Amino acid sequence: xxxxxxxxxxxxxxxxxxxxxxxxxxxxxxxxxxxxxxxxxxxxxxxxxxxxxxxxxxxxxxxxxxxxxxxxxxxxxxxxxxxxxxxxxxxxxxxxxxxxxxxxxxxxxxxxxxxxxxxxxxxxxxxxxxxxxxxxxxxxxxxxxxxxxxxxxxxxxxxxxxxxxxxxxxxxxxxxxxxxxxxxxxxxxxxxxxxxxxxxxxxxxxxxxxxxxxxxxxxxxxxxxxxxxxxxxxxxxxxxxxxxxxxxxxxxxxxxxxxxxxxxxxxxxxxxxxxxxx
Amino acid sequence: xxxxxxxxxxxxxxxxxxxxxxxxxxxxxxxxxxxxxxxxxxxxxxxxxxxxxxxxxxxxxxxxxxxxxxxxxxxxxxxxxxxxxxxxxxxxxxxxxxxxxxxxxxxxxxxxxxxxxxxxxxxxxxxxxxxxxxxxxxxxxxxxxxxxxxxxxxxxxxxxxxxxxxxxxxxxxxxxxxxxxxxxxxxxxxxxxxxxxxxxxxxxxxxxxxxxxxxxxxxxxxxxxxxxxxxxxxxxxxxxxxxxxxxxxxxxxxxxxxxxxxxxxxxxxxxxxxxxxx
Amino acid sequence: xxxxxxxxxxxxxxxxxxxxxxxxxxxxxxxxxxxxxxxxxxxxxxxxxxxxxxxxxxxxxxxxxxxxxxxxxxxxxxxxxxxxxxxxxxxxxxxxxxxxxxxxxxxxxxxxxxxxxxxxxxxxxxxxxxxxxxxxxxxxxxxxxxxxxxxxxxxxxxxxxxxxxxxxxxxxxxxxxxxxxxxxxxxxxxxxxxxxxxxxxxxxxxxxxxxxxxxxxxxxxxxxxxxxxxxxxxxxxxxxxxxxxxxxxxxxxxxxxxxxxxxxxxxxxxxxxxxxxx
Amino acid sequence: xxxxxxxxxxxxxxxxxxxxxxxxxxxxxxxxxxxxxxxxxxxxxxxxxxxxxxxxxxxxxxxxxxxxxxxxxxxxxxxxxxxxxxxxxxxxxxxxxxxxxxxxxxxxxxxxxxxxxxxxxxxxxxxxxxxxxxxxxxxxxxxxxxxxxxxxxxxxxxxxxxxxxxxxxxxxxxxxxxxxxxxxxxxxxxxxxxxxxxxxxxxxxxxxxxxxxxxxxxxxxxxxxxxxxxxxxxxxxxxxxxxxxxxxxxxxxxxxxxxxxxxxxxxxxxxxxxxxxx
Lengths: 278, 278, 278, 278
Fold this sequence. Notes:
The structure is a homotetramer. The first copy, chain A, has two domains: about 1-75, ACT domain (Alpha-Beta Plaits, 2-Layer Sandwich), CATH 3.30.70.260; about 80-275, Formyl transferase, N-terminal domain (Rossmann fold). Helices cover about 30% and strands about 30% of the residues of chain A. The first copy, chain A, is built from eight helices and 13 strands. In chain A, helix 3 (about 95-105) links the parallel strand 5 (about 80-90) and strand 6.
């Protein structure tokens, strides 16, 4: 008995649910959960089914492909731990939250390493017997620094996701392309408000009554990748921007961990710079 | 071309989605939205599909029934306005919110009448050209009073839902049975906390930091019917119970209107004293 | 016995609370509530006290002024109903919510009139015996149209607040200056995200997971006046921008009514394009 | 220059703010923040001021006492780290969150030890060089077990707070009295709903749409001590009670850490089984 997550992304046409669920029926699979969504505007069909039963992956894949329209994307994933690398700079809260969840067995992930441009978080990370690699950017041009970071990441072999847990350096297009669709960032504002540097200072100056955080995939437009999760908290006039920053940390860590969990469970589809989340 | 909401509630078995969606496919129907849920614990299957196409209701019903297991419940509903009667006592906020939404065309409903045990809200309701019937409980035993209320309600013919918009009288089992599964109530607390009289006073005395409201179907256990929607707001030590009551009104009206909308759109399934909401 | 709201806005200096509360003590006033805030960055002191006792307003004002630093602002307000005019266009929800609250006696306000560029809402407003004046903008340049609107507003005498309940026309600097610090707007986004036209469409295109609304005073920078209140709701991939718009209405009306209530109760201080709210 | 938190709890009388702030003024102290609250119902006055300046604690205390009514309570606290002991059982999330915050320097606390009835969390706690003491309850009557726990706690000297981070044993009145007003618990429900065992199972059975967590001081009525903080999240029909439990953990840890922070910063006053929080 094997369990599979069946992930379909196709142009919509009549009968898709019927046909795909027919494959499950023919193989006598149990459907543990099933979600579909059709985006009418773009005519795109998305489906995520979790099934278990007695069939091998190749056969199931072949059978489903036969009923899908041309150019459909099909992924069949077994629920195993994914390999992730975390990048951080100096702040402990988002990284720490992931480390504790990992330790508690909450995450379907192996943390291969933490990579940072400072050594500040090494003492925390090493407690958990996870490799910590400092790649200082001191005296290096951005491409040089990133080249070293990429070498470090690639030295760990296949990586499913790179999690930017408050990594405070801007990434070049080259880096983003190298790990396309694999980089998850936490931005410390309610995007698209306060793009760029020091969002809490910007929020304070604007006098907002709510602050937030946004987890998103990184593409080559700063702070503009597909949004995975957002959360907010109320603030008031008595908050300095430092207070907002402090309060914001609790939102940042919650949102990043939520987004990571969704990614590890294969619940996110990306299209047209937005996400479908089952 | 007709539009139908197909509502299925059955014991789960393999292939149900495949078979039902097969009926839609055979009739060449468009699936505008589709939701399923299986409750593993009770082995119950729920499905709500919105389809349009060229088929009459009887034929569609017959075809779907053929693929459903025995004892399955099937409802096929056309999206027309439902008939509702609102019951209220003296408070204006929940009733007023429904009246404005009705006036704005937000609700799939005809408000046949407002029935109250006081005449206080008559001047508001009559502005909207909706019949207002006062059935005073003064000097009447509860069964006598309810008998009159039931007569009034039944004089309006078929009623789909009775909405208790802060109707502050306890209903007898007879009343509840007369309108089984049709009565929606707003309870001014976050159930099951503070069941019974004056929940805001109870909440104040307990020193809670959050208050809420609960919309639920009414059954014969006071404040214990299936919950449809709940919402909360934060309060603090500076709130007297009157302040909580005032603040709570905004939650009450939002929650009741949300629940009513879900009911009017046939999005609620009830089983085992809980709701499945699509 | 009279009740006063004492509102102080001054440069901070040591002893201010002591001195002002000393005046209350000397006149044997009861302090019903008392709030202070010092903005350290700008060295500004804000205080709102509600007191009652046996003193006339002029005498109290004179006594407090004697203990305040130069250039301090002092307002002493009796809790009477303020005069407001509502401006709207075609949407009913925000206006309707204010009308019901007014009818229920929840607002310390007289609604002098509703002014609109369309006649669509007249049938709703006239139910409540409130004057409705349509000032069509058809065939008029913006300044001409506004001139007429200003004439209408001024015909009602002194107005404390002008509430833009989804008034969908951009105001000229002249209009804003004419009613400086008196115009409260509801913007249908979580400012500063999605400034400008059709924020729900913008929000949909950006793929956000939360939408919101912002009530703010209007100044001469579009959507950039001091923020009074903000609220949000979660959305997901299944929301079209029309769905976001529908869902957003519930937030808009709640936020606008909350902001209006704060203004009517003299709870808002404005400085440096932000608000202090007691 | 010293900084003090001045905490006053007294029967209300006219002039209290004036008199206390007069002491600050006479000593030429800076008021960094100032909050007062009068509970009208019980006629109780609460004040928390943070001041700095050149005065010793005894002198300041003496001067303030002179202006307070009889039986007033006055505490003057210097902002130093408080000593806390954490008690846990087997779950990692709430404990882990506190450990990371402690490591990040977010908490004004020394964690003297973690005490548990199991050894399961030892490997986590020992990473942070914090003593972990297992006091197994196996084969012991409750009073015997608690006697051992109390001995362990008292071996660490003065303890300001005992934090029950999902300590799953019921405490006896003797234990509660031994550490009166010092025990902070996280209860995994939105109290007063679902008092007692397995609140998530209870919540599931009741079909609620919102679950929550409550941090409170422990008194001798199970789950009935003064509430410090509460938070909730929305759930739906697709949540099994295990899913609610998982989702609830994120709320539990946030609420407990928030309550702990408030306690460490001396922001909580307790009276009449409720809290005033500045």
